[in-house]
Amino acid sequence: AQSVAQPEDQVNVAEGNPLTVKCTYSVSGNPYLFWYVQYPNRGLQFLLKYITGDNLVKGSYGFEAEFNKSQTSFHLKKPSALVSDSALYFCAVRVLMNTGFQKLVFGTGTRLLVSP
Amino acid sequence: KAGVTQTPRYLIKTRGQQVTLSCSPISGHRSVSWYQQTPGQGLQFLFEYFSETQRNKGNFPGRFSGRQFSNSRSEMNVSTLELGDSALYLCASSFLGAHTDTQYFGPGTRLTVL
Fold first, then answer.
1. Scanning every residue of chain A, which has its alpha carbon at the shortest distance from the alpha carbon of B90?
2. How many domains does chain A have?
3. For chains A and B, what is the number of CB pairs under 8 angstroms?
4. I need a surface site. Which of A84, B70, B97, B108 has the fewest CB within 10 A?
Protein backbone atom coordinates (compact mmCIF):
# COMPACT_ATOMS: atom_id res chain seq x y z
CA ALA A 1 0.00 0.00 0.00
CA GLN A 2 1.17 3.51 -0.69
CA SER A 3 1.91 5.26 2.55
CA VAL A 4 4.16 7.40 4.70
CA ALA A 5 5.63 6.43 8.04
CA GLN A 6 6.66 8.65 10.90
CA PRO A 7 8.71 6.39 13.15
CA GLU A 8 8.81 8.71 16.17
CA ASP A 9 5.72 9.51 18.21
CA GLN A 10 7.55 12.32 19.95
CA VAL A 11 10.73 14.32 19.46
CA ASN A 12 12.23 16.37 22.28
CA VAL A 13 14.71 19.15 21.59
CA ALA A 14 16.07 22.12 23.49
CA GLU A 15 15.41 25.62 22.22
CA GLY A 16 18.17 26.79 19.92
CA ASN A 17 19.18 23.27 18.91
CA PRO A 18 18.57 21.83 15.44
CA LEU A 19 15.53 19.60 15.04
CA THR A 20 14.67 16.74 12.71
CA VAL A 21 11.31 15.06 12.31
CA LYS A 22 11.53 11.88 10.28
CA CYS A 23 9.33 10.63 7.47
CA THR A 24 9.74 7.74 5.05
CA TYR A 25 7.48 6.98 2.13
CA SER A 26 6.36 4.06 0.04
CA VAL A 27 4.76 4.93 -3.30
CA SER A 28 4.78 3.71 -6.83
CA GLY A 29 5.83 6.34 -9.31
CA ASN A 30 6.98 9.84 -8.44
CA PRO A 31 6.32 10.89 -4.87
CA TYR A 32 4.57 14.16 -4.10
CA LEU A 33 5.29 14.84 -0.45
CA PHE A 34 3.98 17.40 2.03
CA TRP A 35 4.56 18.53 5.60
CA TYR A 36 1.85 20.05 7.76
CA VAL A 37 1.80 21.30 11.35
CA GLN A 38 -1.14 21.24 13.74
CA TYR A 39 -1.43 23.35 16.87
CA PRO A 40 -3.93 22.39 19.61
CA ASN A 41 -7.57 22.74 18.54
CA ARG A 42 -6.53 23.98 15.13
CA GLY A 43 -6.54 22.69 11.59
CA LEU A 44 -3.45 21.72 9.65
CA GLN A 45 -1.10 24.42 8.41
CA PHE A 46 0.93 23.79 5.27
CA LEU A 47 4.70 24.00 5.74
CA LEU A 48 6.25 22.79 2.49
CA LYS A 49 6.07 20.30 -0.33
CA TYR A 50 8.31 18.36 -2.68
CA ILE A 51 7.14 17.92 -6.24
CA THR A 52 10.32 17.77 -8.29
CA GLY A 53 13.65 19.54 -8.59
CA ASP A 54 15.99 20.41 -5.74
CA ASN A 55 16.15 17.82 -3.00
CA LEU A 56 16.26 20.54 -0.33
CA VAL A 57 12.90 22.27 -0.03
CA LYS A 58 12.48 25.45 1.98
CA GLY A 59 9.18 26.25 3.62
CA SER A 60 7.42 28.43 6.13
CA TYR A 61 8.70 29.50 9.57
CA GLY A 62 12.31 28.52 8.78
CA PHE A 63 11.53 24.86 8.15
CA GLU A 64 13.10 22.86 5.36
CA ALA A 65 12.95 19.25 4.25
CA GLU A 66 15.38 17.00 2.47
CA PHE A 67 14.11 14.58 -0.14
CA ASN A 68 16.25 11.45 -0.42
CA LYS A 69 15.16 9.08 -3.14
CA SER A 70 17.59 6.29 -2.32
CA GLN A 71 16.46 6.21 1.31
CA THR A 72 12.81 7.03 0.44
CA SER A 73 12.84 9.71 3.09
CA PHE A 74 11.58 13.26 3.45
CA HIS A 75 12.79 14.49 6.83
CA LEU A 76 11.71 17.86 8.18
CA LYS A 77 14.45 20.05 9.63
CA LYS A 78 15.05 23.38 11.28
CA PRO A 79 18.48 24.75 12.22
CA SER A 80 17.36 26.36 15.49
CA ALA A 81 14.20 25.28 17.30
CA LEU A 82 11.83 27.67 19.05
CA VAL A 83 9.51 26.87 21.95
CA SER A 84 6.68 28.02 19.69
CA ASP A 85 7.52 25.19 17.26
CA SER A 86 6.04 22.73 19.76
CA ALA A 87 3.15 21.11 17.90
CA LEU A 88 2.04 17.99 16.03
CA TYR A 89 3.70 17.45 12.67
CA PHE A 90 2.29 15.37 9.82
CA CYS A 91 3.98 14.05 6.74
CA ALA A 92 1.70 13.27 3.79
CA VAL A 93 1.92 11.84 0.29
CA ARG A 94 -0.35 12.16 -2.73
CA VAL A 95 -1.75 8.77 -3.67
CA LEU A 96 -3.44 7.95 -6.94
CA MET A 97 -6.79 6.22 -6.44
CA ASN A 98 -8.51 3.88 -8.85
CA THR A 99 -10.76 6.77 -9.87
CA GLY A 100 -7.74 8.36 -11.52
CA PHE A 101 -7.73 11.17 -8.97
CA GLN A 102 -5.55 11.66 -5.92
CA LYS A 103 -5.96 11.88 -2.20
CA LEU A 104 -3.57 12.77 0.61
CA VAL A 105 -2.43 9.93 2.85
CA PHE A 106 -1.04 11.08 6.18
CA GLY A 107 1.46 9.64 8.59
CA THR A 108 0.52 9.10 12.21
CA GLY A 109 2.07 12.36 13.30
CA THR A 110 5.06 13.30 15.45
CA ARG A 111 4.70 15.48 18.50
CA LEU A 112 7.55 17.96 18.78
CA LEU A 113 8.34 19.35 22.21
CA VAL A 114 10.84 22.19 22.42
CA SER A 115 12.00 22.94 25.93
CA PRO A 116 13.22 26.41 26.98
CA LYS B 1 -7.19 36.00 0.70
CA ALA B 2 -9.40 34.55 3.34
CA GLY B 3 -8.59 31.01 4.34
CA VAL B 4 -10.80 27.96 4.47
CA THR B 5 -13.68 28.44 6.88
CA GLN B 6 -15.72 25.77 8.59
CA THR B 7 -18.93 26.06 10.54
CA PRO B 8 -19.82 25.31 13.20
CA ARG B 9 -16.57 24.94 15.11
CA TYR B 10 -18.09 22.73 17.79
CA LEU B 11 -21.10 20.42 17.84
CA ILE B 12 -22.59 18.14 20.43
CA LYS B 13 -25.11 15.56 19.25
CA THR B 14 -26.64 12.37 20.58
CA ARG B 15 -26.59 8.92 19.03
CA GLY B 16 -29.04 8.47 16.21
CA GLN B 17 -29.17 12.12 15.27
CA GLN B 18 -27.83 13.54 12.04
CA VAL B 19 -25.45 16.44 11.52
CA THR B 20 -24.44 18.76 8.68
CA LEU B 21 -21.07 20.48 8.55
CA SER B 22 -20.20 23.33 6.22
CA CYS B 23 -16.99 24.35 4.48
CA SER B 24 -16.19 27.44 2.44
CA PRO B 25 -13.01 27.04 0.38
CA ILE B 26 -10.43 29.66 -0.48
CA SER B 27 -11.73 31.93 -3.22
CA GLY B 28 -10.95 30.41 -6.62
CA HIS B 29 -10.41 26.91 -5.29
CA ARG B 30 -12.66 24.32 -6.88
CA SER B 31 -11.60 21.14 -5.13
CA VAL B 32 -12.80 20.43 -1.60
CA SER B 33 -11.74 17.39 0.41
CA TRP B 34 -12.95 16.19 3.79
CA TYR B 35 -10.97 14.31 6.42
CA GLN B 36 -11.80 12.76 9.77
CA GLN B 37 -9.22 13.00 12.54
CA THR B 38 -9.39 10.76 15.59
CA PRO B 39 -6.75 9.78 18.16
CA GLY B 40 -7.06 6.12 17.21
CA GLN B 41 -7.25 6.26 13.42
CA GLY B 42 -5.41 9.49 12.72
CA LEU B 43 -6.31 11.44 9.60
CA GLN B 44 -8.60 9.55 7.27
CA PHE B 45 -9.80 10.70 3.85
CA LEU B 46 -13.58 10.92 3.52
CA PHE B 47 -14.27 12.30 0.05
CA GLU B 48 -13.37 14.95 -2.49
CA TYR B 49 -15.62 17.17 -4.56
CA PHE B 50 -14.82 19.10 -7.70
CA SER B 51 -17.29 21.11 -9.76
CA GLU B 52 -20.21 19.75 -7.74
CA THR B 53 -19.19 16.12 -8.40
CA GLN B 54 -17.76 13.60 -5.99
CA ARG B 55 -14.47 12.45 -7.51
CA ASN B 56 -13.07 10.33 -4.73
CA LYS B 57 -14.45 8.52 -1.74
CA GLY B 58 -12.67 6.93 1.20
CA ASN B 59 -13.63 3.81 3.12
CA PHE B 60 -16.48 5.16 5.18
CA PRO B 61 -20.05 3.84 5.44
CA GLY B 62 -22.88 5.35 3.46
CA ARG B 63 -23.97 7.32 6.52
CA PHE B 64 -21.29 9.78 5.51
CA SER B 65 -22.24 11.87 2.51
CA GLY B 66 -21.46 15.23 1.06
CA ARG B 67 -22.20 17.68 -1.67
CA GLN B 68 -20.73 20.72 -3.31
CA PHE B 69 -22.51 23.78 -4.54
CA SER B 70 -21.88 25.87 -7.64
CA ASN B 71 -19.88 28.38 -5.59
CA SER B 72 -17.60 25.50 -4.46
CA ARG B 73 -18.89 25.58 -0.90
CA SER B 74 -19.30 22.08 0.45
CA GLU B 75 -21.31 20.33 3.10
CA MET B 76 -20.93 16.94 4.63
CA ASN B 77 -23.68 15.06 6.37
CA VAL B 78 -23.52 12.22 8.84
CA SER B 79 -26.76 10.39 9.53
CA THR B 80 -27.61 8.06 12.41
CA LEU B 81 -24.68 9.21 14.49
CA GLU B 82 -22.64 6.69 16.44
CA LEU B 83 -20.33 7.27 19.37
CA GLY B 84 -17.37 6.45 17.12
CA ASP B 85 -18.19 9.39 14.88
CA SER B 86 -16.82 11.75 17.53
CA ALA B 87 -13.89 13.39 15.79
CA LEU B 88 -12.40 16.53 14.35
CA TYR B 89 -13.69 16.93 10.80
CA LEU B 90 -11.34 18.86 8.57
CA CYS B 91 -12.07 20.42 5.23
CA ALA B 92 -9.31 21.26 2.75
CA SER B 93 -9.42 23.15 -0.50
CA SER B 94 -7.10 23.32 -3.47
CA PHE B 95 -7.20 24.96 -6.86
CA LEU B 96 -7.91 21.93 -9.04
CA GLY B 97 -7.08 18.98 -6.81
CA ALA B 98 -4.16 18.10 -9.08
CA HIS B 99 -1.28 16.03 -7.78
CA THR B 100 0.97 19.07 -7.41
CA ASP B 101 -1.65 21.28 -5.75
CA THR B 102 -1.38 22.18 -2.10
CA GLN B 103 -4.39 21.48 0.08
CA TYR B 104 -5.16 24.22 2.58
CA PHE B 105 -7.08 23.19 5.66
CA GLY B 106 -9.75 24.88 7.67
CA PRO B 107 -9.80 24.95 11.49
CA GLY B 108 -12.10 21.94 11.65
CA THR B 109 -15.41 21.12 13.29
CA ARG B 110 -15.18 19.22 16.57
CA LEU B 111 -18.09 16.79 16.73
CA THR B 112 -18.93 15.08 19.99
CA VAL B 113 -21.53 12.31 19.98
CA LEU B 114 -23.05 11.44 23.35
1. A43
2. 1
3. 56
4. B70
